[in-house]
Structures are given as structure tokens and as C-alpha cells.
Amino acid sequence: MPIRTFRLPTALRRKGPAPAPAATDTRARRPFRALPPAAAVAMLLAGLLTATLAIPAQASELDHASGLPNGVPPAVAIGPAQSLPASTATTDLIQRDGFSVTEAAAPAPVAAPAASAAAAPAPAAPAPVQPAIRWPFPSAVRLSDTFGPREAPCDGCSTFHKGLDMLPGEGAAVGAVADGVVRSASASDDGGLGVHVVIDHTVDGRLVSSVYAHFQAGSLQVSPGQSITVGQHLGNVGSTGQSTGPHLHFEILLDGVTPTDPYAWLMQYAGAM
Lower Cβ count inside 10 Å, N or C end of the chain? Predict the structure, then answer.
């Protein structure tokens, strides 16, 4: 491409003599040589030390109005530093950082709750020993009359039969129905019951009396006040007193005086005959 030449206007051309050309430095230029590594490190450390010493000097120049370093805005001011006594800090650090291992204590035995006196059942009282009770004869016998109202069978006989008439046969041995004590005994034929005996027993804690009447004369085996055992021989079946034939008239007196049905009582305590 051809080079174009521009000429300045006459007004802009500088008047006067042209400046003398600058003297040319004819000295040879020294080539650039890099510093040794040790010198470079020394210069870097010197620069860092100079910067470190210069910063506190600048920071010490405080703004007397706000109490802050020059150039620090009040909005970022830091509050007063907190101080902690050395002894307290040391103690807290030891308590927080330290630990120890100990064996777990054995659990305390737990006592069983005491039973409430109201809830605990009272010990049952021992049941009274029930005496053995049996029928007057060891085997079944016929019955001729029962307890309750009736037609009088003879002159002087009652219209309300207070006992049970049993027919085992004349001369059959009569036994006591339970243990007891002879209350009264008559060896002679001197009344409606003829030769008879009355024995007191205790049954279920209650006085119960048994009556045996119309024995054969001379067959009575016991006397008043004598202790009797169940089944003991008392006398023999006869027909003394107000009687129409040989039989045993048997009564049960509750509390020693009140007649009750002998058959029902014996069935309750001695079972079936």
C-alpha cells in the first residue's frame, strides 16, 4: 500500500529554529539479571514487616469524636470486649472438658408394698370339731309314729307327738346318738315315759338334749352325771309307762327344752338310717 504524506496547515506550523536533535546515548545497555532466590525472599519478608508495623500506626489514629479508628463507620463498631477471670475460666474448662468413669451403683432393693390390714383376710377361726352323731340303732328299723299332731293312741297319751316311735323289736339295745352327759335317768316305771334317760350334748355350739323312753324294767345302764360316748349302751327296748307295745320313744330338745322333729334332725346330722 502506498504511504500517504500529510502536511500541516501553515498556521499550525511551528516557527523558529528546529530543536536540536537529542544526543544519542551511545553507551551499551546492560542486560537484566534476575535476583537470586535468597535475595528475593529477603526482600519479600522486609516488605511484609514494613506493612505490619505500618498498620498499627495507622489504626492508632482514632477519631476523637466517635472513639473509632479513622475510616471505620459507627455502624460496624464492636462493643466492649468481655473479660473472664483466669481462675474461673480455668475451672470451667476443667469441669467441661474433664470426665471420669465410675462403676454404676447397685440399685437399691425395692421393698414390696405392705399389704393393707383391711385388705388382708383375717385368719379363719378353726372350725369346731363336730362330734360323731348316729341313729339309736346300728341298722334301719320301722317307724310307727312321727313328730307332730295325732289322735291320742291311748288314755293319757298326748294329741301332739313330741318324738319319733321306732320298732326294732323288744329287748333291742339302744345306743346314745352322740357324746354327752346324763342329765337325768329313771330306773322305775313312774310316769308316762316309764324307764327312761335324758342326755345333754353340744352340737354346733348349741345345747341339744336327747330323750330315750319306755325301756324294759331293770335294763337301764347309766346314771345322772355320767359321761357318755356315742353309741354307748343305755338300755333295752320295752313298753313301760304309757305305751301300747314295745318300742323306743325318741325325742330331740333344742336348748334342752324345745322339742323338734327327731327324724329331720337325725337326717341332717347322721344321714339316712
Answer: N
